[in-house]
Design brief:
This protein has 213 residues and is mainly alpha-helical. The chain contains six helices and no strands. It has one domain (19-69, 79-203). The longest helix is centred in the N-terminal third of the chain and has 67 residues, at 3-69.
Amino acid sequence: MSLTQSSSGSSDRSLRHYELEEKILNQLLVLENEFRAHYAFAKKELTQQMEWANRLWVLAQRYILLKSTGPCCKYPEIYPAPAESSVLLDMTEKIKSIRNSNYRIYGSVKELRKSCIIFEELCSQLDMTVESPFIMGDTFHKPLSFFIELVSDLFKYMHASILRQRYSSHLIEPSNLEAVAKYKSVIEPSEDFEEYLTVSLTYCKCLRPKPIC
């Protein structure tokens, strides 16, 4: 092989490498937007779920009271049978709404996974031994290895969260106050995670908004 051919082959490999880096960067930027969009969507859903859960908490107490007290012998109209049925129906609707909400969140997570897979597959093709600025990072950019791990960790967290929500929602029963309380704790917002998502999932530090004093 001549020196010219060797140089040409090396140049082609370098070109393919940097083209692949560009694809990975573009996919990483797509993931930045998709992670944030999913989190905003899930946060909105969980805010509504908390309202339903708070209502369930009240209804569960009322239902337990109706079941334990029963109709009054002297004044049967105090706890008429339709009251129990009405509370039960209201609770059933709230539980169904919560489960449907979790189904929507789960669907969003599944879509997010597709983008994560594209990112992972592109990264698997990259020669990580090349000491390029994109791989190594610099003053304003974290190394690629950081984002590979971050994408994996964020998805695992979001996936585990929705699985936990779906499981906990199926434990809710009209006479189980503990299950309702448990579910409320499961969907409590995490300020630490929101801050972690906002700060960590930004490729370029120079693009971060300046803190407000």
